[in-house]
Structure prediction request, 203 residues.
Amino acid sequence: MVLRAQPLAGLTGAEPLCLTATEERVLARFEGTSSFVATEDLKVAVNAAVSLQRPLLIKGEPGTGKTVLAQEVARALGKDLISWHIKSTTKAQQGLYEYDAVSRLRDSQLGDARVHDIGNYIIHGKLWDAFEAQNAPVLLIDEIDKADIEFPNDLLLELDRMEFFVYETRQTIKARQRPVIIITSNNEKELPDAFLRRCFFHY
Prediction:
């Protein structure tokens, strides 16, 4: 499969891409795979995002191989893939965690001993899974433009700091290692400028 793309695009005010010798060695890591032929521009985009630890935003029409790219990057780099598929009803909080208050109330009424540990009712989201992985995974946030316009901005702090706070248990979840973050968009709606400034992007 071939994913055709425009050259790596920066945003107004972005610094030139200056790489150290170590970073240049890292850039050689993704060269496509036997089942995925990547353009030179796409290789540079992927490896720059990996080396400089910034999210990579891939825009394109449906069916052009955006999701497959994340799968192939994970395979080529020997990393696990964690996929978060976004729908129109998806909220940013779901990527962190959800508190199942209904189940806790039911267990309380039934006298279940589990109710005394609120942690039993915290459902991990995909970002939590990615942050707690022993080895840095590839985190795919797929079709981000399907969600509400504020969805990307609601993730800014967590993606910048690589941590979030769980209010119910009073604990901070910090990434063991920064995951490789690949975000796809079908370009159905414009994404917020504040979010775009934090990404490399490729068409």
User: Anything to note?
Assistant: The chain has a mean pLDDT of 86. The two ends are 16 Å apart (CA to CA).
